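Researcher: Re-running this chain for the archive, since the previous output was lost when a drive failed. Same request as before.
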Amino acid sequence: MKNMPVQAIKKELRKYASAKRKKTNEWFFKTGKGEYGEGDKFIGVRVPDTRKVAQKFTSADDKTVEKILHSNIHEERLLALLILVIQFKNADNTRKEKIYKFYLKNTKWINNWDLVDLSAYSIVGKFALSHPKEKAALKKLAVSKNMWERRIAIIATWAFIRENDFGETLKISKILLSDNEDLTHKAIGWMLREVWKRDAKTGEKFLMENYKKLPRTTLRYAIEWMEERKRKKFLKGEF
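Model: Regenerated structure tokens:
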């Protein structure tokens, strides 16, 4: 790992910035007063371009990445997370654990749905998958007062789903069914849909057993890929 000039990395990212994209992102990520992304700042860089920059600085050391992650600029925080995702993928077990702990220590800065979705399962999920004791950390995140930590918990279970292990997703989903945030409802529905795509019987059993507690948004996301006749039955509770 190398100590790199933070400003040089940020300058590289700004080469891809666009005023038009900045305006779009501010609307898309709900930065207005009272919205979930209130006050977040953007410079207007697309995710594919942020990935390009991340690939150039994969050898950045932890202090460098931390400084970028603690930025008030959304795309800079995403850049730091994408660097960590690349590093985690190529790391040995000791380094993976360090990245995992660093990630959980810095959840304050992982504070929008894209930041979570593009990093949580690749780091938190994959580490918990290979270290069963860390499943307890997922449960702890699921009961957090921080909505983004709760989203990290459910999105992290995607790593388990991809290995056809659905237990963690169902456990975390059940914890989060009473959540008040629409973004959490959507995340639960997304993961339940991923379960259903791999094991329809398991997915549908969970929906039927928890039907009365399911937020409507969660249900709609979860059944999105069902054939129309079955989907309509679930919407009406006729199963």
